[in-house]
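Suppose you are handed a protein chain with no further information: no name, no annotation, nothing but its sequence. What can you learn? This example shows the usual starting point.
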Amino acid sequence: MSSGKIPILHLRGDAYTRGRLHGVALSTSIQTSFGRLRRSTADRSWLCAERRAANSWRLLESVAPTLVAEIKGIADGSGLAPLDIYLLSAFEFFDGAIASGCTTVACATGAGAVLAQNWDAHPGTEEELVLLVHDGTDDHDGLIMVTSPGTLGWVGMNRAGLAFVTNDLMLDAAAHGIPSLVVRRLILKERHAAGALATLRRVSHLSGRCYLLADASGQVDGVEISPSIGPVTLTGNPIVHTNHPVTPAVAIMEDIETVARVYPSSRERLRAAKLHCISDVAGIRRLLSDTNGSPDAICKTASSREPTQTAFSVIFDCRSRRASICLGRPDRGDFHAFDTAWTAAA
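A reasonable first move is to predict its three-dimensional structure. Written in structure tokens, the prediction is:
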């Protein structure tokens, strides 16, 4: 059982230097993750993923050169090839759906905008997570990311107070584009939710996703994205989301059979989330800790029906630039806060 405390790794310097520090510090975990990915993938599927990654890499060099430098740094630090590291951040290049369901919420409160997420994954995933703190010379604001070793990160907030959370959606897929983990880092190059929305409209998406956004000014936004349709705006306050589309335009693209197989609790979790009164951080914590309907609740326990559980919970208070993170299930662990200097605050 996790203590709720996530390991922290501070990264300073330019993009390549930060990547190399990441690679050196987590080299054993990175090599283990890559080896596990390679062993779990058939040879033909692996060759296909490598080809897709190579094509996407050329696009990445033009749209995100600092991320290319960071990936090269991780590769040099961990002793792997840059394309191998890229594959760790590109689950879309592999056949089959990954099981990492989530419940997210965005709320404009009297004290500013708040984002939160329960991130669900296979048991044991929480033991591999790390909090990366970027303080870079080429990323003016700096950023904080909950990350698996060797990847670009799952969720985060930058020093300007812009944050995002995200949900996997089983929709159509595109043959060409950039992985969502790259998109997430491009979001954090912006200072405001409006700029992040513009980024989401500009880039080429590989698969279906929902992104909830909030910034220090109190702005809250959300979109569902189908690669063929593009972003469709979510409305309301609060916005709650799970792993199925709720906008009619995107819902027509849903792969209903895959959702039923991979995320059978999605609609139950959304119904449960909508029963909560969400107007402040305390209300959001109650939502994240909700075990009603267990095991397949908002605060999940692994079950035969859906073999994932809540690996971490995060709450981003954008006005105060504070991230509160609980490693493991929030009904059993404690949230630990990190302030604007990205140092432990509580």
